[in-house]
Amino acid sequence: MKVFATTLNCYKTQFYHNTTFDWFSENLTSSLKRDPNHLPDLIAIAFQEFLPLDKAFGYGDEEYETSIGNMLLKAIDQGMQDFFTQSLLERGSKKTAKKMKAITFKLVKMTRHVGNALFIFSHQNLIPSEISVDRLGLGWFWLGNKGAVAIRLVFEGENRDGKALKWTVCFLSCHLDANKTDSQARNHQFQELASKINFPEYSGLSNKKYSSLEEQDAIVLMGDLNYRVYDSSKSAQELIAHYHSGQIEELQVFDQLSQEFSRKSGFLSQFYEAPINFLPTYKVIPGTGKLDSSRIPSWCDRILISSPLLCL
Fold first, then answer.
1. pTM of this prediction exceeds 0.85
2. What torsion, rounded to 10 degrees, do the Cα atoms 154, 158, 163, 165 define?
3. Which superkingdom (predicted)?
4. Residues 81, 97: contact at Cβ < 8 Å?
């Protein structure tokens, strides 16, 4: 199963302009161009700080949430159409382009809890037999300024021998503790996700109940995980100098999440992520593309996957 996933911290700002959606459709197109055979079955978009605090802790903004879902769907269609057009121009296969152009997506589920939001879109021919949602507040009094939302999809099908198959795919949008020097609070919150996120039991083909997060066949965990680049023996100026010199590998040595992966302990041990081949995106000043020199550059926004069943 092929998945296109992305995550964005909105900084408590509602966006009605097209910039974000243009960015999303352009990234979808470029991803498809890198691997034309990687047409996604599922598209997942995670947001953190999705609403201003008054709305996030209040009654939300259902009209805004609906409009974002519609605009994302439009951006997906635009990204796919741009790819189809380019494929036709570059490869000249009208038959292939016509077949690909017929592919459409639909919003299968959206959920939000305080500032975390998650939108899942599926290929027109991929219909989950069951959809479940859970939400978890973390942080101060578990109010949800930090926390997670989760959507579990159940799929049914057959293997090549005609034997019935059932499997689950779970997506999470997370926002974890922001302590820049100590990652223990974030590690603890990961364990809370594992123990407190739960779904209704369903009758799979194994003896598993599929209710806990760890029992799911595949998990895609996205969000502002807030793991930082930090080392007590290095000054902020030294780490910022690595950033300005484009020294990705030198910075990665001090990446807290990479260090946690190497320890292979707890809930985190079942996840992995694609190689990081870009400079840190935290903290870039919104609208400028420039680094906030008062912060140590870090890879706060991450996408983790738990199973080789998924091609991300």
1. yes
2. -10
3. Eukaryota
4. no
